[in-house]
Amino acid sequence: MDMITKMVMERPVVIYSKSSCCMSHTIKTLLCDFGANPAVYELDEVSRGREIEQALLRFGCSPAVPAVFIGGELVGGANEVMSLHLNGSLIPMLKRAGALWV
How far apart are CA 92 and CA 13, in angstroms? Predict the structure, then answer.
């Protein structure tokens, strides 16, 4: 958990993903299209990826990927991010976190 906490505080937007996950790809594309420039950790490509995945599950992410943190706080997975986008709260949240300057 300490590892996750440290990693998510390093950037305004952090995505834990797997390179083979279509939902992870969708969320990465959405946030990048907004200009958020998230830190992306591909758990199937980074060392300690399995350990990070287990920590995300303990953190409450289910499924473990995609897991999106904005402003150091867990937002959730694809469903939660898309719900925020559809109800108009995702961009203001990104701005408050310092991920967007528009």
Answer: 13
